[in-house]
Specification:
135 residues, mainly alpha, two-stranded antiparallel sheet, 2 strands, 67% helix
């Protein structure tokens, strides 16, 4: 069975060793220890897969608690239909959150546009020497 060092995984996934240690602290990875005083972390293919799934979840914007639940679920492939239904539920909740955030951002951008237009109008009026009543 092949193993990986923290440096190899960091390089492969283009993340820092610190990030990998963080995921380890969060219970997503559990490498064995070797060397003097157990200073060297040794990651198995299982750890590599868990890291890959964790990073995929992060790209989707899922919180670590959801990622941990999903990654742990794949440890016991008893009923993939249950797993997929759970994952669909997670994705649906996340989609709903993102769509609400998008709506909020669009409203904020519209307000910014209105303020910008008003500022430009006031600047142009001032440049022409016109006084404008303040609202």
């Amino acid at each position: 069975m092949s193993t990986y060092t923290i440096t190899e995984l960091a390089r492969e996934f283009d993340i820092t060793a610190r990030a990998i240690r963080f995921y380890e602290d969060q219970g997503l990875l559990s490498p064995s220890r070797e060397g003097t005083g157990g200073r060297n972390r040794v990651y198995t293919p299982r750890d590599r897969t868990r890291l890959k799934l964790t990073l995929r979840g992060k790209r989707l914007g899922l919180p670590l608690s959801e990622i941990r639940d999903l990654v742990d679920m794949y440890e016991t492939p008893k009923d993939t239909a249950v797993q997929m239904n759970h994952f669909l539920g997670v994705l649906a909740r996340h989609r709903e959150t993102l769509e609400q955030q998008r709506e909020d951002i669009e409203m904020t951008l519209a307000e910014i546009t209105a303020h910008e237009e008003e500022c430009r109008r006031l600047i142009a009026a001032a440049a022409e020497g016109k006084s404008t009543p303040s609202d």
